[in-house]
């Protein structure tokens, strides 16, 4: 007797299988992109949680603000490197002809536009220190962050960044970029309510205000 499966799960599996058929996992550019996508959030979460527990960076720089700004520079440099590796991977990966259409190109542009709006509006709402792990350094906002886009989305900077990468993958058009954008999963806050940059953005600051 044939066992019936979950149609939704089977459809998702078929889509993912088809996308993976356009991925060359041995391509050096793709490997570099995967490494940077995986390493970057691991780096800033480990360093920030270490600082939150020890305050060694703040003591070394003589100020939590200087320590936060110094760490943010390394995060920005790593993000530039990640974007470069991602772009190079999109140029070298197999392309899907069915995505090479004006409609798909327009969709990619729309996702890029949405991503830029979410990322920039999140940055302006949180401020520089609020975006780059300021709560780990004891730098807290004076009021709850409830303005756009935090009034419509949780983790808007994470979703904006994901939309940017997905949009670029569609424009390329290289399905490997869609696989890479799915790997950019948000990391949860520390047990005591500290947060992290880009991924879960405003909510840790909101929690910190009510300690």
TrEMBL record:
Residues 1-27, 49-60, 130-172 are lumenal. It comes from the Eukaryota. GO terms for biological process: methylation; phosphatidylcholine biosynthetic process. Its main location: endoplasmic reticulum. Pathway: Lipid metabolism; Phospholipid metabolism; phosphatidylcholine biosynthesis. The chain crosses the membrane at residues 29-48, 60-83, 103-134. Signal peptide: none annotated. The keyword Chaperone does not apply. This is Phosphatidylethanolamine N-methyltransferase. The gene is PEMT.
